[in-house]
Amino acid sequence: MSPRLALAAEPRFFRGRSPQSKLLGLGLRSTVRPVLGLWSRLPFDLFPPNLIDHVARLLPVDEGTSWRTIALEQCSSEFLRARDVQDIHGGNPRVVLYFHGGAFLTCGLNTHRRLVSRISHAADQPVLNVGYRQMPFEPITESVADGVDAFRWLLAQGYRAQDVTIAGDSAGGYLAFSVARAVLDAELGRPAGVVAISPLLDVDPTTKRAHRNADRCQVFPLRALERFTDVALRMDTRRGIAGTRVCPVNMPVADMPPALIQVGSREILMADAEVMANRLVAAGVPCDLQVWDRQVHVFQAAASWVPEARAAIAEIGAFVESVTDARAPSAAAPAPARQRSRAASAASG
Q1: In the annotation, is 10 catalytic?
Q2: Is 267 known to be catalytic?
Q3: Domain locations in the chain?
């Protein structure tokens, strides 16, 4: 295994692991990891219907959460607000643009509604949760295009680019950075910041294969990520875009907004997080790389019963408020006090 990547700035390590977290890790290692390992060894492509997102319709969300469907150019999304959170019509000019995870193959608005609601509450901002197009029907470039469409929709509602924080988990972390880059390249303005939760930032598995976490992840076996790479590259080839898509770890970053990256200490995607944080900080872009002790992939989704998840979401809320308040008019001076109260509520709720 390779030694730890020399970072331009040291990560912040959040030590400690609750019994709930240990139980979650054991459950995922015993169920999800073997299933993904089996999928990676199939001699043919198998992409079952996205049943998990349909079943997730039955899951409750935090009391007081409201949302409405938004029809974008090529996909459906939803505009969500946690209890007592105002939108631009209620005098709140700030907003989060969110992309769910699922390896560009599964999950959706339903699976991530509870997590998005928690982030909305912690940040005191509404969230546009994007149901972007996915493989095997569309390549990753079309997912990015849907993200840019969502950003344009927010601008059309009156939000300013500098008041939009772009966030996502896993594959959504790839989109968070890619959409921020695309928005900058399209001269639509500079987003306030980027939040990436357990992000997949490099489709090429080479760095992950050599990383110390290559066989320590409780969710993803290396073979599953290698199979995902094959699927993504074949999709690009079929659409005639092979070799043109650039992963976040290889993008120009000097003009990117500040970033927060959260990752579990034994995740195989730690490799991507380290490379991205190193590139950002070396380019002079503020990046807070948070490493959470032995937490599983996107542990933040288990905030209803894992205390570390609630603490991590509170960190996200504080970051989102800090990058948007830093650009807000002087009339927003009371924001730091609100930020502290929201973070405390998210951590304990």
Answers
A1: no
A2: yes
A3: 12-348
